[in-house]
User: Which sequence fits this backbone?
């Protein structure tokens, strides 16, 4: 008879539902691969009636509204956390590890906040803590960074790390879709976080960027160390200008190490249409890794949605279950070394600046002088519209972010500049460090 390993799920929303579906649909294959039958025996949810009404292939008495009961249940061998948020998820995971139960999570917010403490708790308990689903959904990227590339020196990681925003930007630029309507679609399709401001504000991508930077550079980078801008301010004009100049607008996360300092940033960029990341559309994600010996690698796939995310979660469940059967642990995170965070002001890249201006003689000269006064050189400039809707579009040469920020401050204070409507970084084919 097959050995049975019993799974306790914390949360059964988009991802949890996918996990239950996957585990119950491929029983024979999963049993063969694991060496044990995996059975979901307890599931914590907020609303019992809502959970039962979903028609998932589990009996009603599996559900509870008490997540602690799942963790504490002696019948639960492996805990899968797919409820999200810092609390109570963090405390529940700590307790599960303390009880010697391996944990699988999809919670990037928590891993970016408390990852090192949780890895340490898992190490002390001699069990696994796995989080492949937390970054870029279905795409295997945690395991490649932690294991496959352990012999190499990663220098840079660039990723489209949020499906919701990539979906929104794709629909806005290709179909002229309305921002609010596409965001509602992304929510309906199960891509968005419970609070979608985490997606559009760049917080979700910043958490993922922090996790990738920590793994790539053997250090601890928290989400708060990641410079962050979201996509809420992107306009149809920005998308049109980008297109005209041969770019697409993408929200990217970029982590790099230069001279023992780690830079980590998430913001929208103008990306050349021929860059491999430019063709990553809809809710797809991609992570582009540069390593000294391996050269360039690109990982591509679905970064959000029930089944793609469940694929990564169940892969981890099988991994930790195999280890549990052998009373072994999988690869641990490397020992962290303290590294300074590189301030965004030190970044050097090109910029696109859109200004609403008074349509009068001399304004262009005044604007150009302001750029020049701060050491920022202009590569291209033209006027769009006239009268009350006059706008100046400027593309700079490579400049220091600190100088650009000062330029923007000075522009905003000019009497003939009505507003600084947009400022976006322009990345050439080789990303700036
Ligand atoms: N939706 C997606 O495409 C992806 C989501 N994730 C992550 O997976 C996790 C879950 O996301 P979703 O399934 O989309 O969220 P969701 O909001 O659809 O589901 C959350 C579930 O947890 C339950 N829950 C939350 N707090 C609870 C509490 N205190 N007590 C009992 N039950 C509680 C809810 O009732 C619900 O069943 C999050 O950490 C998210 O960031 C990761 C990758 C992709
Ligand atoms: N809300 C996230 C889900 C996966 O992490 C996204 O849109 O990418
Ligand atoms: Na992943």
Assistant:
């Amino acid at each position: 008879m097959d050995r049975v390993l019993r799974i306790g799920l914390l949360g059964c929303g988009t991802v949890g539902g996918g996990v239950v579906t996957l585990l119950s649909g491929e029983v024979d294959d999963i049993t063969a691969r694991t060496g044990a039958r995996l059975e979901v025996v307890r599931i914590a949810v907020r609303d019992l009636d809502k959970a039962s009404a979903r028609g998932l292939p589990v009996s009603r008495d599996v559900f509870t509204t008490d997540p602690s009961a799942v963790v504490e249940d002696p019948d639960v061998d492996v805990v899968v956390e797919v409820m999200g948020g810092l609390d109570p998820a963090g405390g529940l995971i700590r307790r599960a590890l303390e009880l010697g139960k391996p944990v699988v999570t999809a919670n990037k917010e928590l891993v970016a906040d408390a990852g090192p403490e949780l890895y340490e708790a898992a190490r002390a308990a001699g069990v696994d803590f796995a989080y492949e689903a937390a970054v870029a959904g279905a795409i295997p990227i945690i395991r490649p960074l932690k294991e496959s590339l352990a012999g190499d020196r990663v220098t840079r990681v660039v990723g489209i790390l949020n499906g919701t925003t990539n979906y929104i930007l794709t629909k806005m630029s290709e179909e002229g879709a309305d921002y609010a309507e596409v965001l509602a679609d992304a929510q309906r399709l199960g891509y968005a976080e419970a609070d979608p401001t985490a997606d559009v504000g760049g917080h979700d991508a910043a958490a993922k960027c922090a996790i990738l930077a920590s793994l790539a550079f053997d250090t601890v980078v928290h989400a708060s160390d990641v410079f962050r801008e979201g996509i809420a301010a992107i306009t149809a004009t920005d998308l049109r200008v980008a297109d005209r100049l041969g770019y697409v607008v993408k929200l990217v996360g970029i982590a790099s190490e230069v001279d023992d300092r780690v830079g980590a940033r998430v913001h929208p960029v103008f990306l050349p249409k021929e860059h491999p990341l430019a063709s990553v559309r809809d809710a797809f994600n991609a992570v582009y890794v540069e390593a000294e010996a391996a050269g360039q690698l690109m990982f591509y796939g679905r970064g959000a949605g029930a089944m793609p995310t469940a694929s990564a979660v169940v892969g981890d469940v099988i991994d930790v279950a195999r280890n549990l059967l052998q009373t072994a642990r999988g690869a641990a995170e490397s020992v962290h070394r303290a590294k300074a965070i590189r301030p965004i002001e030190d970044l050097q890249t090109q910029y696109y600046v859109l200004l609403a201006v008074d349509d009068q003689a001399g304004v262009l000269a005044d604007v150009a002088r302001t750029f020049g006064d701060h050491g920022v050189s202009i590569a291209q400039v033209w006027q769009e519209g006239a009268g009350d809707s006059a706008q100046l579009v400027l593309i700079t040469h490579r400049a220091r972010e600190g100088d650009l920020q000062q330029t923007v401050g000075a522009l905003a204070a000019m009497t003939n500049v009505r507003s600084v409507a947009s400022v976006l970084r322009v990345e050439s084919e080789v990303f700036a460090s």
Remarks:
- Residues 132-133, 135-137, 139, 141-142, 312 surround sodium ion (ligand 3) (CB under 6 Å).
- The longest strand covers residues 247-258.
- The CA atoms of residues 26 and 394 lie 55 Å apart.
